[in-house]
Amino acid sequence: MSLHSIDIAIILVYLVLTISLGFWISKRASENLNSYFLGGKRIPWWMLGLSNASGMFDITGTMWMVAICFVYGVKSVWLPWLWPVWNQIVLMMFLAVWMRRSNVMTGAEWLKTRFGEGRGAKLSHISVVIFALFAVIGFIAYAFEGIGKFAVIFLPWDLNAQLGGLNISSEHMYALLIMGVTTLYVIKGGMYSVVITEVLQFIIMTLACIIIGVIAIKTVSHEQIMQIVPDGWDQVLFKWKLNLNWSGFNEVVNQALNQKILSDGYELFGIFIMMMVFRGILVSIAGPVPGYDMQRVLATRTPRESALMSGSVNLVLFFPRYLMIAGLTVLALVKLQPEMLMNEGVLDFEKILPFALNNFIPVGVLGIILAGLVAAFMSTFAANVNAGPAYIVNDIYKRFINPGASNKTLVRASYLASLALVVVGVTVGFFVQDINSILQWITAALFGGYAASNFLKWIWWRFNGYGYFWGMIGGLAASLAIPKIIPDLSVILAFPIILGIASIGSFLGTLLNPPDDEEVLKSFVKNVNPWGWWKPIQRKLQAEDPEFVPNTNFIFDMVNVVIGIVWQMCLILMPVYIVIREWKEFWISLIIFVLLSVVLKFRWYDKLKN
Predict the structure, then answer these.
(1) What is the pLDDT of residues 385-423, one digit of tens each?
(2) Residues 6+ apart with CB under 8 A from 470
(3) For the domain that residue 50 is a member of, what is the CATH number?
(4) Which of 114, 165, 228, 533 has its CA 20 to 30 A from that of 321?
């Protein structure tokens, strides 16, 4: 496809504006590491919330979500529980406050407040740095694969090239160019540049989402959608079996769609959702993986603002994003001939989004939307590139290699660390087969290895640095090995195996070694005050300080989480129902959302303390 000159001009103006803004802000980032990676903890919570939402609004994930919405319909809103998408609710209700009370820069540095400075603590520190780097490299590879597939459909130039005997496709060349531009302002400007540019990017993305939603509503009728989709496609509720049988297209396409459901392993949908809930509880309470989500929490000015920031992500992210997802889905369903996506008898579902844009969005409007989607990619990529180097510079270079380094030296080291991570992530991206494969590995396998150690660190006083180290290393090794040993095993079914291996490592490492320093544990409980099995430490604290009150809010917080998950689901369903014109379901969702908003005002907002 050759873009119109108007669309190209809009995209170029956006890119110039973003880079200029990033460089203009960059002077504030060079003061010290705190300024470079956390913005000096001076950035308002609402800006961090918009930035965090922008980082989650990635183009690669959006391509995947349009693909699953095409295949599974309204039931596709359950599938992001793989992350799980409601980890933002857990952060909002209590976990962000617990994390922010530590007053540190990275997840690895946070471990000192939990395990102290002994040998076990140092091992735990090393393990989380290793995990953080694997996670960031995985996300960069994921972004690399997605932006290349997206760009090659719209940009007209053939950029196939050879580099050192390696054939580089146009997809990968476009990805290299776009990632190179983004890397420029991220490396130069740090957290300040990332946040300010992401606020701009979020505004552009929201405008793009609204435009797509309006075009879909005006172009496609409810009756046209229902003529094509199978029974149950427009319903959010489900039984034990999915029972979706595609028959609205020709035989080859219908067979490809039904085969997609079988290969994904979602036919036994009830059991699949139960597995996701079990996994989601563990992963959510474990906390965000060391990356940009955790970085935004640690960058807030107070614990109260960390909770407000996490809550704002839910409010601003889901409605516009699903307006676009549902809009592109129905345009593709009714207007697109799926045969265009066939390649050797296989449907490439990841091309639904770019093909829908290519065929049904007018000149000028397409430029705005493409600028918004490029902004989405740049946001996610920038957030990961800014978060990962903090572990290299703060937790390795500053701590072990050059403890006396000046602020100028540390910031320069951050530049090099950012560049190195991008190079490694891109190299891995060359070997990724498709978006879904790496997404599934990150969400199920990698997160499965993370869950055991990070869940136990919050709730059990006896859990020590050795247990954390062996749990993390065991989980990381299992997440890398299991997909290779049992390649046909669904990643959601691999999760219990990976979790079991990580849990064995956690318990053996803990019980075969002495407890951590009691003074460290008392300091942790006094400052963070989580609920869980902390009674031996709580009793000693109460003996020393009768005014200390243990946290007994487990049931209260869990009820709030359940309320929040339903509240969040309504935010997701409302735009979907608007686009497909299911008005009864829309009004039910809206009424539930309003009622639960009032409940959360009293149960959550009013109880936040500075």
Answers:
(1) 766 777 788 778 887 788 888 877 877 887 788 888 888
(2) 505, 506, 508, 509
(3) 1.20.1730
(4) 228
